């Protein structure tokens, strides 16, 4: 496939918000390319409220192009595997005792889960599964106008804040070029609680639905009570929320976008002929360390954490061996981890 220039297609318009600036401490975190899926989950970022991070104020040197002028999208990569996916959108009552609870993720068996790992044409569970008629909605409901806007996106930067759990950090406008401002969608998912908090502080969306570059999309009826779990929906299912996007950048709400998204895509994907890129963790390199940290912070029930960890181990997870890791790009953190 020949090289082609990125199409200029201005996304549609939308709904409200904004946040007061706070004093910031910066450390730019570099992201690593991993050759896996067709979405980008990375960002060139600034930590804005983590003064105790071990690599505080240590800059990463990333040789971005000087501008997006005359940026050309490369032809298709040879390492792509072509296949088609369809998604299960509705399930019927399958319980033998007649008791059926619709679940956002559906009722997938372990065998069905195992089958989804193969790169081939298939229909699978991937969230947004509804139950039969007259059963309650499984959640993550969006306004139709927001859906239309999201369907218009070809390159998207997205993030979320649920449960009023964080500050809204705007991308650094001076680092975002005119092309990206016109052609990249910047979408911030909020629940009504977070929107209400921001509005009460006088930092709600403007009349077009924006807070700075962020287009605010309000999610009604979150599918999970745990806000961390609900936040995984836009993080992992960007390909469902933005069905026509070619590139998707996920930004943790604790981080601030500090570079032009198209320069990020060029550097981490096009330049390296990669399909997927992900940042290293700033402090931990192994799931077992993450297990201990979750227990220290009492993020979840300890028994549930252990059960999940044992399941991962039974599925083949072994302790991370740093000496055997593959070479990766340099990072600000003390450790490297290719996921």
UniProtKB/TrEMBL annotation:
<keyword id="KW-1133">Transmembrane helix</keyword>
<keyword id="KW-0472">Membrane</keyword>
<keyword id="KW-0812">Transmembrane</keyword>
<dbReference type="InterPro" id="IPR048354">
    <property type="entry name" value="TOD1_MUCI70_glycTrfase_dom"/>
</dbReference>
<feature type="domain" description="TOD1/MUCI70 glycosyltransferase-like">
    <location>
        <begin position="85"/>
        <end position="324"/>
    </location>
</feature>
<protein>
    <recommendedName>
        <fullName>TOD1/MUCI70 glycosyltransferase-like domain-containing protein</fullName>
    </recommendedName>
</protein>
<feature type="region of interest" description="Disordered">
    <location>
        <begin position="1"/>
        <end position="21"/>
    </location>
</feature>
<dbReference type="InterPro" id="IPR006852">
    <property type="entry name" value="TOD1_MUCI70"/>
</dbReference>
<dbReference type="Pfam" id="PF04765">
    <property type="entry name" value="TOD1_MUCI70"/>
</dbReference>
<feature type="transmembrane region" description="Helical">
    <location>
        <begin position="27"/>
        <end position="47"/>
    </location>
</feature>
């Amino acid at each position: 496939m020949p090289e082609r220039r990125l199409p200029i297609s201005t996304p549609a318009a939308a709904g409200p918000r904004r946040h007061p600036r706070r004093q910031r401490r910066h450390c730019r975190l570099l992201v690593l390319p991993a050759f896996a899926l067709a979405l980008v989950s990375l960002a060139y970022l600034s930590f804005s409220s983590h003064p105790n991070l071990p690599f505080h104020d240590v800059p990463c040197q990333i040789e971005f192009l000087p501008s997006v002028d005359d940026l050309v999208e490369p032809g298709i990569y040879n390492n792509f595997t072509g296949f088609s996916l369809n998604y299960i959108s509705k399930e019927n009552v399958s319980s033998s005792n007649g008791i059926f609870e619709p679940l956002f993720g559906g009722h997938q068996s372990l065998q069905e889960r195992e089958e989804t790992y193969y790169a081939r044409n298939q229909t699978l569970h991937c969230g947004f599964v509804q139950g039969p008629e007259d059963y309650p909605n499984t959640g993550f409901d969006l306004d139709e106008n927001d859906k239309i806007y999201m369907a218009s996106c070809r390159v998207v930067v997205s993030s979320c804040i649920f449960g009023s759990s964080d500050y809204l950090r705007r991308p650094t406008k001076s680092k975002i070029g005119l092309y990206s401002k016109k052609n990249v969608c910047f979408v911030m998912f909020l629940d009504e609680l977070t929107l209400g908090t921001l509005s009460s502080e006088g930092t709600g969306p403007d009349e077009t639905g924006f807070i700075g570059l962020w287009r605010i999309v309000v999610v009604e009826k979150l599918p999970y009570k745990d806000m961390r779990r609900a936040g995984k929906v836009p993080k992992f299912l960007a390909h469902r929320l933005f069905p026509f996007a070619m590139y998707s950048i996920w930004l943790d709400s604790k981080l601030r976008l500090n570079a032009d998204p198209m320069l990020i895509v060029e550097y981490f994907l096009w330049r390296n002929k990669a399909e997927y890129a992900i940042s290293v963790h700033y402090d931990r390199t192994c799931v077992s360390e993450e297990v201990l940290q979750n227990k220290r912070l009492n993020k979840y029930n300890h028994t549930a954490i252990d059960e999940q960890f044992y399941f991962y181990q039974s599925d083949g997870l072994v302790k991370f061996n740093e000496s055997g890791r593959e070479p990766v790009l340099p990072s600000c953190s003390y450790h490297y981890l290719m996921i």
